[in-house]
Amino acid sequence: MGKITNKKSFSDRFTEVVSKIAGNKLLLTLRDSFVLVASLTLLAGFAVMISSVFLDPNGIIFGSDGLHLGKLFFGSNKAFLNSGFAAGLLKAQELFTAFTKGSMSINAVLIVVIFANTLSKRYFRKNKEHMNSVLYALAAFFICLPWNFTTEVNGSSIQIDNVVNSNFLGQQGIFAGLIISGIAVVLYNKLSEKDITIKMPASVPPAVARSFESLVPGFLTLIVFIIATAISTTVAHATLPELFLQLLQKPAMAISKTAAFALFSQVTWPLFQWFGIHPSAIWSPIFGMTWDIAGNENVLGTAHHLYSTLFMNYSTIAAGTFALAPVLAILIFSKVKSNKKITKIALAPAIFNISEPITFGLPIILNPVYMIPFVIVQPLCFYIAVFFTKIGFIGVICNNVPWTVPPILSGLLFSGSIKGAIVQLINLVVAIVVYIPFVRIADKMALKKQEDEKQEV
Q1: Residue 142: which of 175, 177, 167 has the closest Cα?
Q2: DSSP secondary-structure letter at 201?
Q3: 4 pLDDT more than 50
Q4: 110: confidence class by pLDDT, cuts 50, 70, 90
Q5: CA distance 404 to 61
Q6: Is 427 helix (H, G, I), strand (E, B) or coil?
Q7: What is the pTM of this model?
Q8: What is the rounded distance in angstroms from the CA atom of residue 57 to the CA atom of residue 51?
Q9: CA 104, CA 42: separation in Å to the nearest integer?
Q10: Each residue of 139-156: b (16+ CB within 10 Å) or e?
Q11: How many CB atoms are located within 10 Å of the residue 282 CB?
Q12: How far apart are CA 152 and CA 54, in angstroms?
Protein backbone atom coordinates (compact mmCIF):
# COMPACT_ATOMS: atom_id res chain seq x y z
CA MET A 1 0.00 0.00 0.00
CA GLY A 2 1.20 3.46 -0.79
CA LYS A 3 2.19 5.78 1.97
CA ILE A 4 -0.55 8.26 2.79
CA THR A 5 0.71 11.77 3.38
CA ASN A 6 -1.29 14.47 5.04
CA LYS A 7 0.55 17.63 4.13
CA LYS A 8 -0.89 20.89 5.34
CA SER A 9 -1.27 23.68 2.85
CA PHE A 10 0.53 26.98 3.35
CA SER A 11 -2.74 28.69 4.30
CA ASP A 12 -3.45 26.02 6.93
CA ARG A 13 0.05 26.35 8.45
CA PHE A 14 -0.11 30.16 8.31
CA THR A 15 -3.53 30.23 9.96
CA GLU A 16 -2.39 27.78 12.62
CA VAL A 17 0.70 29.81 13.54
CA VAL A 18 -1.09 33.17 13.57
CA SER A 19 -4.01 31.72 15.53
CA LYS A 20 -1.60 30.55 18.22
CA ILE A 21 -0.07 34.02 18.39
CA ALA A 22 -3.50 35.65 18.48
CA GLY A 23 -4.60 33.26 21.23
CA ASN A 24 -1.59 33.97 23.43
CA LYS A 25 -2.85 34.85 26.93
CA LEU A 26 -0.47 37.76 27.40
CA LEU A 27 -1.36 39.30 24.01
CA LEU A 28 -5.05 38.86 24.80
CA THR A 29 -4.52 40.55 28.16
CA LEU A 30 -2.72 43.48 26.53
CA ARG A 31 -5.36 43.76 23.81
CA ASP A 32 -8.27 43.69 26.25
CA SER A 33 -6.57 46.27 28.46
CA PHE A 34 -5.96 48.71 25.60
CA VAL A 35 -9.49 48.19 24.27
CA LEU A 36 -11.00 49.05 27.67
CA VAL A 37 -8.84 52.15 28.12
CA ALA A 38 -9.54 53.20 24.52
CA SER A 39 -13.14 54.10 25.39
CA LEU A 40 -11.95 56.98 27.59
CA THR A 41 -9.27 58.16 25.17
CA LEU A 42 -11.79 58.02 22.33
CA LEU A 43 -14.17 60.18 24.36
CA ALA A 44 -11.39 62.67 25.02
CA GLY A 45 -10.34 62.62 21.38
CA PHE A 46 -13.93 63.21 20.32
CA ALA A 47 -14.11 66.20 22.68
CA VAL A 48 -10.87 67.61 21.25
CA MET A 49 -12.25 67.08 17.73
CA ILE A 50 -15.42 69.02 18.60
CA SER A 51 -13.24 71.74 20.12
CA SER A 52 -10.93 72.06 17.11
CA VAL A 53 -13.54 71.62 14.37
CA PHE A 54 -16.67 73.29 15.77
CA LEU A 55 -15.59 75.58 18.62
CA ASP A 56 -12.33 77.02 17.30
CA PRO A 57 -13.00 80.62 16.15
CA ASN A 58 -10.44 80.03 13.40
CA GLY A 59 -11.76 76.55 12.58
CA ILE A 60 -13.77 75.18 9.68
CA ILE A 61 -17.14 76.49 10.91
CA PHE A 62 -16.36 80.11 11.80
CA GLY A 63 -12.86 80.70 10.40
CA SER A 64 -11.71 82.37 7.19
CA ASP A 65 -10.45 79.02 5.87
CA GLY A 66 -13.82 77.37 6.47
CA LEU A 67 -17.46 78.39 6.12
CA HIS A 68 -16.78 82.05 7.07
CA LEU A 69 -19.74 82.10 9.45
CA GLY A 70 -17.90 84.47 11.78
CA LYS A 71 -17.49 87.01 9.00
CA LEU A 72 -21.06 86.40 7.83
CA PHE A 73 -22.57 87.11 11.26
CA PHE A 74 -20.31 90.00 12.33
CA GLY A 75 -19.43 91.72 9.06
CA SER A 76 -15.71 90.95 9.17
CA ASN A 77 -13.44 88.29 10.55
CA LYS A 78 -11.70 90.86 12.78
CA ALA A 79 -15.00 91.98 14.32
CA PHE A 80 -15.95 88.37 14.92
CA LEU A 81 -12.64 87.54 16.67
CA ASN A 82 -13.07 90.57 18.93
CA SER A 83 -16.67 89.68 19.78
CA GLY A 84 -18.02 88.17 22.97
CA PHE A 85 -19.26 85.19 20.97
CA ALA A 86 -15.70 84.31 19.89
CA ALA A 87 -14.59 84.73 23.51
CA GLY A 88 -17.35 82.33 24.53
CA LEU A 89 -16.12 79.79 21.98
CA LEU A 90 -12.61 80.03 23.44
CA LYS A 91 -14.02 79.50 26.94
CA ALA A 92 -15.93 76.44 25.71
CA GLN A 93 -12.67 75.12 24.22
CA GLU A 94 -11.02 75.43 27.62
CA LEU A 95 -13.85 73.47 29.23
CA PHE A 96 -13.55 70.71 26.64
CA THR A 97 -9.88 70.22 27.51
CA ALA A 98 -11.10 68.79 30.85
CA PHE A 99 -11.85 65.55 29.00
CA THR A 100 -8.14 65.04 28.33
CA LYS A 101 -7.26 65.65 31.98
CA GLY A 102 -9.41 62.69 33.01
CA SER A 103 -8.17 60.34 30.31
CA MET A 104 -5.11 60.95 28.12
CA SER A 105 -3.26 62.90 30.80
CA ILE A 106 -3.50 59.89 33.12
CA ASN A 107 -3.40 57.21 30.43
CA ALA A 108 -0.55 55.29 32.10
CA VAL A 109 -2.46 55.16 35.40
CA LEU A 110 -5.54 53.83 33.61
CA ILE A 111 -3.40 51.21 31.86
CA VAL A 112 -1.91 50.11 35.20
CA VAL A 113 -5.34 49.63 36.77
CA ILE A 114 -6.95 47.82 33.83
CA PHE A 115 -3.91 45.70 32.95
CA ALA A 116 -3.36 44.62 36.57
CA ASN A 117 -7.00 43.62 36.95
CA THR A 118 -7.14 41.77 33.61
CA LEU A 119 -3.81 40.02 34.20
CA SER A 120 -4.82 38.90 37.69
CA LYS A 121 -8.15 37.50 36.46
CA ARG A 122 -6.63 35.69 33.49
CA TYR A 123 -3.57 34.16 35.16
CA PHE A 124 -4.54 33.85 38.83
CA ARG A 125 -8.10 32.57 38.90
CA LYS A 126 -7.76 31.32 42.50
CA ASN A 127 -7.27 34.86 43.75
CA LYS A 128 -10.39 35.73 45.77
CA GLU A 129 -9.92 39.50 45.50
CA HIS A 130 -8.38 40.75 42.25
CA MET A 131 -8.65 44.37 43.35
CA ASN A 132 -5.80 43.70 45.79
CA SER A 133 -3.62 42.99 42.77
CA VAL A 134 -4.68 46.34 41.32
CA LEU A 135 -3.95 48.20 44.56
CA TYR A 136 -0.41 46.86 44.91
CA ALA A 137 0.32 47.31 41.20
CA LEU A 138 -0.79 50.94 41.43
CA ALA A 139 1.24 51.47 44.61
CA ALA A 140 4.31 49.92 42.97
CA PHE A 141 3.90 52.22 39.96
CA PHE A 142 3.77 55.35 42.13
CA ILE A 143 6.76 54.15 44.18
CA CYS A 144 8.79 53.94 40.97
CA LEU A 145 7.68 57.28 39.50
CA PRO A 146 10.12 60.23 39.51
CA TRP A 147 9.20 62.44 42.47
CA ASN A 148 12.09 64.83 41.86
CA PHE A 149 12.72 66.31 38.44
CA THR A 150 14.01 69.34 36.58
CA THR A 151 11.78 71.51 34.42
CA GLU A 152 12.10 74.67 32.35
CA VAL A 153 10.34 77.83 33.57
CA ASN A 154 10.88 81.06 31.60
CA GLY A 155 14.10 79.66 30.15
CA SER A 156 15.54 78.66 33.53
CA SER A 157 15.98 75.15 34.90
CA ILE A 158 14.18 74.60 38.20
CA GLN A 159 14.42 71.55 40.46
CA ILE A 160 11.02 70.28 41.64
CA ASP A 161 11.12 68.09 44.77
CA ASN A 162 8.48 65.79 46.28
CA VAL A 163 6.10 66.26 43.36
CA VAL A 164 5.44 63.49 40.85
CA ASN A 165 6.48 64.17 37.26
CA SER A 166 3.02 64.21 35.67
CA ASN A 167 4.44 63.40 32.21
CA PHE A 168 4.79 59.79 33.36
CA LEU A 169 1.13 59.62 34.34
CA GLY A 170 0.31 59.97 30.65
CA GLN A 171 1.86 58.75 27.40
CA GLN A 172 5.47 58.60 28.65
CA GLY A 173 4.62 56.17 31.42
CA ILE A 174 2.74 53.52 29.43
CA PHE A 175 5.65 51.09 28.95
CA ALA A 176 6.73 51.51 32.56
CA GLY A 177 3.15 51.07 33.75
CA LEU A 178 2.76 47.80 31.86
CA ILE A 179 6.05 46.32 33.07
CA ILE A 180 5.80 47.46 36.70
CA SER A 181 2.15 46.49 37.11
CA GLY A 182 2.75 43.13 35.40
CA ILE A 183 5.66 42.27 37.69
CA ALA A 184 3.75 43.52 40.75
CA VAL A 185 0.70 41.36 39.97
CA VAL A 186 2.81 38.24 39.43
CA LEU A 187 4.89 38.83 42.58
CA TYR A 188 1.88 39.54 44.75
CA ASN A 189 -0.08 36.53 43.56
CA LYS A 190 2.86 34.14 43.71
CA LEU A 191 3.58 35.24 47.28
CA SER A 192 -0.10 34.90 48.15
CA GLU A 193 -0.04 31.33 46.88
CA LYS A 194 2.73 30.58 49.41
CA ASP A 195 0.11 31.22 52.08
CA ILE A 196 2.29 33.79 53.86
CA THR A 197 -0.72 35.63 55.21
CA ILE A 198 -2.29 36.96 58.40
CA LYS A 199 -5.22 34.68 59.19
CA MET A 200 -8.27 36.30 60.72
CA PRO A 201 -11.00 34.59 62.82
CA ALA A 202 -14.03 33.23 61.00
CA SER A 203 -16.20 35.94 62.61
CA VAL A 204 -14.37 38.69 60.66
CA PRO A 205 -16.24 39.80 57.49
CA PRO A 206 -14.72 38.27 54.30
CA ALA A 207 -13.76 41.64 52.76
CA VAL A 208 -11.83 42.62 55.92
CA ALA A 209 -10.21 39.18 56.15
CA ARG A 210 -9.02 39.35 52.51
CA SER A 211 -7.59 42.80 53.14
CA PHE A 212 -5.50 41.51 56.08
CA GLU A 213 -4.48 38.41 54.12
CA SER A 214 -2.97 40.66 51.46
CA LEU A 215 -0.73 42.58 53.89
CA VAL A 216 2.33 40.31 53.98
CA PRO A 217 2.54 39.46 50.24
CA GLY A 218 1.69 43.09 49.46
CA PHE A 219 4.39 44.40 51.79
CA LEU A 220 7.00 42.08 50.27
CA THR A 221 5.93 43.10 46.75
CA LEU A 222 6.31 46.81 47.46
CA ILE A 223 9.67 46.24 49.19
CA VAL A 224 10.97 44.76 45.92
CA PHE A 225 10.06 47.96 44.04
CA ILE A 226 11.49 50.21 46.75
CA ILE A 227 14.79 48.35 46.49
CA ALA A 228 14.67 48.41 42.67
CA THR A 229 14.04 52.17 42.74
CA ALA A 230 16.93 52.71 45.17
CA ILE A 231 19.29 50.71 42.94
CA SER A 232 18.07 52.44 39.77
CA THR A 233 18.44 55.97 41.13
CA THR A 234 21.83 55.19 42.71
CA VAL A 235 23.44 53.34 39.81
CA ALA A 236 21.76 54.86 36.76
CA HIS A 237 20.73 58.20 38.34
CA ALA A 238 17.24 57.66 36.92
CA THR A 239 13.99 56.11 38.09
CA LEU A 240 12.65 52.93 36.50
CA PRO A 241 10.04 54.75 34.35
CA GLU A 242 12.75 57.06 33.05
CA LEU A 243 14.93 54.05 32.20
CA PHE A 244 12.05 52.22 30.50
CA LEU A 245 11.28 55.35 28.49
CA GLN A 246 14.87 55.56 27.22
CA LEU A 247 15.51 51.85 26.72
CA LEU A 248 12.10 50.59 25.51
CA GLN A 249 9.46 53.17 24.70
CA LYS A 250 11.58 55.58 22.67
CA PRO A 251 13.14 52.80 20.51
CA ALA A 252 9.70 51.25 19.95
CA MET A 253 8.27 54.65 18.98
CA ALA A 254 11.26 55.27 16.68
CA ILE A 255 10.65 51.94 14.90
CA SER A 256 6.93 52.70 14.57
CA LYS A 257 7.76 55.97 12.77
CA THR A 258 9.54 54.12 9.95
CA ALA A 259 8.07 53.45 6.53
CA ALA A 260 8.95 49.75 6.92
CA PHE A 261 6.81 49.41 10.05
CA ALA A 262 3.93 51.25 8.37
CA LEU A 263 4.11 49.08 5.23
CA PHE A 264 4.33 45.83 7.19
CA SER A 265 1.35 46.75 9.38
CA GLN A 266 -0.82 47.83 6.45
CA VAL A 267 -0.08 44.71 4.39
CA THR A 268 -0.52 42.21 7.22
CA TRP A 269 -3.68 43.84 8.63
CA PRO A 270 -5.90 42.84 5.64
CA LEU A 271 -3.87 39.64 5.10
CA PHE A 272 -4.76 38.38 8.59
CA GLN A 273 -8.39 39.37 7.95
CA TRP A 274 -8.42 37.44 4.65
CA PHE A 275 -7.30 34.31 6.51
CA GLY A 276 -10.22 34.80 8.92
CA ILE A 277 -8.08 36.10 11.80
CA HIS A 278 -9.17 39.45 13.21
CA PRO A 279 -6.13 41.73 12.74
CA SER A 280 -6.76 43.61 15.98
CA ALA A 281 -5.94 40.40 17.88
CA ILE A 282 -2.36 40.74 16.61
CA TRP A 283 -1.91 44.45 16.10
CA SER A 284 -3.89 46.02 18.97
CA PRO A 285 -1.21 45.27 21.61
CA ILE A 286 1.52 46.53 19.26
CA PHE A 287 -0.37 49.67 18.27
CA GLY A 288 -1.30 50.22 21.92
CA MET A 289 2.39 50.72 22.72
CA THR A 290 3.27 52.67 19.55
CA TRP A 291 0.73 54.23 17.17
CA ASP A 292 -1.91 54.75 19.87
CA ILE A 293 0.64 56.75 21.87
CA ALA A 294 1.53 58.72 18.73
CA GLY A 295 -2.15 59.44 18.08
CA ASN A 296 -2.75 60.55 21.67
CA GLU A 297 0.24 62.90 21.47
CA ASN A 298 -1.22 64.36 18.26
CA VAL A 299 -4.57 64.93 19.97
CA LEU A 300 -2.88 66.55 22.96
CA GLY A 301 -0.86 68.76 20.62
CA THR A 302 2.47 67.63 22.10
CA ALA A 303 3.63 66.09 18.80
CA HIS A 304 2.75 65.77 15.11
CA HIS A 305 3.33 62.16 14.13
CA LEU A 306 2.45 61.20 10.56
CA TYR A 307 1.89 57.52 11.34
CA SER A 308 -0.71 56.75 14.00
CA THR A 309 -3.86 54.70 14.47
CA LEU A 310 -5.76 57.93 13.82
CA PHE A 311 -4.13 58.19 10.40
CA MET A 312 -4.73 54.50 9.63
CA ASN A 313 -8.41 54.80 10.54
CA TYR A 314 -8.76 58.02 8.57
CA SER A 315 -7.05 56.79 5.40
CA THR A 316 -8.35 53.22 5.21
CA ILE A 317 -11.02 51.87 7.58
CA ALA A 318 -13.09 55.05 7.98
CA ALA A 319 -12.53 55.86 4.29
CA GLY A 320 -14.62 52.81 3.38
CA THR A 321 -11.82 50.85 1.71
CA PHE A 322 -12.44 47.81 3.92
CA ALA A 323 -16.23 47.61 3.68
CA LEU A 324 -17.94 50.13 1.41
CA ALA A 325 -15.58 49.80 -1.57
CA PRO A 326 -16.15 46.06 -2.23
CA VAL A 327 -19.88 46.45 -1.58
CA LEU A 328 -20.26 49.29 -4.10
CA ALA A 329 -17.99 47.59 -6.66
CA ILE A 330 -20.08 44.40 -6.58
CA LEU A 331 -23.42 46.23 -6.33
CA ILE A 332 -22.69 48.40 -9.38
CA PHE A 333 -20.60 46.13 -11.60
CA SER A 334 -21.58 42.55 -10.78
CA LYS A 335 -24.09 40.69 -12.95
CA VAL A 336 -24.54 37.78 -10.56
CA LYS A 337 -27.88 38.15 -8.77
CA SER A 338 -26.86 36.25 -5.65
CA ASN A 339 -23.84 38.51 -5.12
CA LYS A 340 -25.92 41.66 -5.65
CA LYS A 341 -28.42 40.44 -3.05
CA ILE A 342 -25.62 40.00 -0.51
CA THR A 343 -24.26 43.50 -1.18
CA LYS A 344 -27.73 45.03 -0.75
CA ILE A 345 -27.87 43.47 2.71
CA ALA A 346 -24.26 44.51 3.46
CA LEU A 347 -24.65 48.11 2.21
CA ALA A 348 -26.13 49.64 5.38
CA PRO A 349 -23.44 48.22 7.71
CA ALA A 350 -20.75 49.11 5.13
CA ILE A 351 -21.76 52.77 5.22
CA PHE A 352 -20.68 52.68 8.87
CA ASN A 353 -17.47 50.78 7.95
CA ILE A 354 -18.63 47.42 9.31
CA SER A 355 -17.10 44.85 6.98
CA GLU A 356 -18.23 41.48 8.39
CA PRO A 357 -21.45 41.14 6.30
CA ILE A 358 -19.48 41.41 3.06
CA THR A 359 -16.23 39.73 4.10
CA PHE A 360 -17.98 36.69 5.58
CA GLY A 361 -21.23 36.85 3.60
CA LEU A 362 -19.89 36.93 0.05
CA PRO A 363 -17.37 35.70 1.24
CA ILE A 364 -14.14 37.63 0.67
CA ILE A 365 -12.46 35.63 3.45
CA LEU A 366 -10.35 32.83 1.92
CA ASN A 367 -11.75 33.72 -1.51
CA PRO A 368 -8.73 33.49 -3.90
CA VAL A 369 -10.33 35.86 -6.44
CA TYR A 370 -10.69 38.71 -3.96
CA MET A 371 -7.43 38.15 -2.10
CA ILE A 372 -5.40 40.57 -4.25
CA PRO A 373 -7.71 43.61 -4.04
CA PHE A 374 -8.51 42.97 -0.38
CA VAL A 375 -4.82 42.91 0.57
CA ILE A 376 -3.47 45.68 -1.67
CA VAL A 377 -6.25 48.27 -1.26
CA GLN A 378 -5.40 49.13 2.35
CA PRO A 379 -1.66 49.90 1.90
CA LEU A 380 -2.41 51.63 -1.43
CA CYS A 381 -4.95 54.01 0.11
CA PHE A 382 -2.80 54.47 3.21
CA TYR A 383 0.08 55.73 1.06
CA ILE A 384 -2.19 57.89 -1.09
CA ALA A 385 -3.08 59.72 2.13
CA VAL A 386 0.62 59.79 3.10
CA PHE A 387 1.36 61.48 -0.26
CA PHE A 388 -1.32 64.16 0.25
CA THR A 389 -0.01 64.78 3.78
CA LYS A 390 3.60 65.11 2.69
CA ILE A 391 2.80 67.60 -0.08
CA GLY A 392 0.87 69.68 2.45
CA PHE A 393 -2.60 69.20 0.94
CA ILE A 394 -3.85 67.91 4.32
CA GLY A 395 -2.31 68.30 7.75
CA VAL A 396 -1.24 65.58 10.15
CA ILE A 397 -4.34 63.87 11.57
CA CYS A 398 -4.90 65.16 15.11
CA ASN A 399 -8.59 64.46 15.72
CA ASN A 400 -9.85 61.18 17.15
CA VAL A 401 -13.09 60.17 15.45
CA PRO A 402 -14.95 56.85 15.90
CA TRP A 403 -14.10 54.60 12.95
CA THR A 404 -17.82 53.88 12.49
CA VAL A 405 -18.49 57.44 11.27
CA PRO A 406 -19.30 57.17 7.51
CA PRO A 407 -16.66 57.99 4.89
CA ILE A 408 -16.33 61.60 3.71
CA LEU A 409 -17.98 62.90 6.91
CA SER A 410 -15.28 61.19 8.98
CA GLY A 411 -12.62 62.69 6.67
CA LEU A 412 -13.96 66.14 7.44
CA LEU A 413 -13.92 65.48 11.18
CA PHE A 414 -10.55 63.69 11.30
CA SER A 415 -8.77 66.51 9.47
CA GLY A 416 -10.96 69.49 10.37
CA SER A 417 -10.87 70.41 6.69
CA ILE A 418 -12.89 69.77 3.53
CA LYS A 419 -9.60 68.64 1.99
CA GLY A 420 -9.57 65.66 4.35
CA ALA A 421 -12.97 64.63 3.00
CA ILE A 422 -11.67 64.96 -0.58
CA VAL A 423 -8.73 62.63 0.14
CA GLN A 424 -11.10 60.05 1.64
CA LEU A 425 -13.31 60.29 -1.44
CA ILE A 426 -10.25 59.73 -3.66
CA ASN A 427 -9.30 56.66 -1.60
CA LEU A 428 -12.82 55.26 -1.79
CA VAL A 429 -12.93 55.71 -5.59
CA VAL A 430 -9.47 54.17 -6.01
CA ALA A 431 -10.49 51.18 -3.87
CA ILE A 432 -13.64 50.63 -5.96
CA VAL A 433 -11.64 50.83 -9.20
CA VAL A 434 -9.15 48.23 -7.89
CA TYR A 435 -12.03 45.85 -7.12
CA ILE A 436 -13.78 46.16 -10.52
CA PRO A 437 -11.63 43.71 -12.59
CA PHE A 438 -11.81 41.12 -9.83
CA VAL A 439 -15.59 41.50 -9.63
CA ARG A 440 -15.73 40.72 -13.36
CA ILE A 441 -13.43 37.71 -12.94
CA ALA A 442 -15.64 36.41 -10.13
CA ASP A 443 -18.71 36.96 -12.33
CA LYS A 444 -17.21 34.96 -15.21
CA MET A 445 -16.36 32.10 -12.88
CA ALA A 446 -19.83 32.12 -11.30
CA LEU A 447 -21.63 32.27 -14.67
CA LYS A 448 -19.46 29.49 -16.08
CA LYS A 449 -20.25 27.36 -13.05
CA GLN A 450 -23.98 27.99 -13.56
CA GLU A 451 -23.74 26.96 -17.23
CA ASP A 452 -21.80 23.80 -16.37
CA GLU A 453 -24.45 22.86 -13.79
CA LYS A 454 -27.23 23.39 -16.38
CA GLN A 455 -25.44 21.17 -18.92
CA GLU A 456 -25.00 18.42 -16.33
CA VAL A 457 -28.76 18.47 -15.68
Answers
A1: 177
A2: -
A3: no
A4: very high
A5: 23
A6: helix
A7: 0.81
A8: 10
A9: 9
A10: bbbebbbbeebeeeeeee
A11: 20
A12: 33
Task: Tell me how far apart the alpha carbons of residues 410 and 43 are, in angstroms, rounded to a whole number.
Answer: 15
User: Burial of 58 by CB count in 10 Å (0-12 exposed, 13-18 middle, 19+ buried)?
Assistant: middle
Annotate 157-176 with b (16+ C-beta within 10 A) or e (fewer): eeeeeeeebebbbbbbbbbb
Q: Report helix, strand or coil for 199.
A: coil
CA distance 251 to 261: 13
User: Could you give the CA distance from residue 408 to residue 414 in angstroms, rounded to a whole number?
Assistant: 10
pLDDT over 60 at 49, yes or no: yes
State which H helix or E strand residue 156 sits in.
Answer: strand 156-161
The rounded percent of the chain whose pLDDT value lies above 90 is 44
- CB-based contact 155:236 (threshold 8 Å): no
Look at the chain and count its residues: 457
pLDDT of 132-150, one tens digit each?
999 999 999 999 999 988 8
Contact indicator for 221, 191 with CB cutoff of 8 Å: yes
Domain assignments of the chain as residue spans, ordered by start: 24-102, 104-253, 257-456
